[in-house]
Amino acid sequence: MTPGTEMLLIRHAPVAEPGRLAGRTDLAARIEPEAIAALAALLAAPRRIVTSPAARCVETARALFPGRAATTDPRLWEQDFGRYDGAPLESLPDIGALSAAALAAHRWEGGESFEDMAARVASALSGLPGGGPVAIVAHAGTVRAALAWAMGATAPALAFQVAPLSLTRLIRHPAGIAVGCVNRTAA
Question: Cα separation of 127 and 58, whole Å?
Answer without folding.
Answer: 20
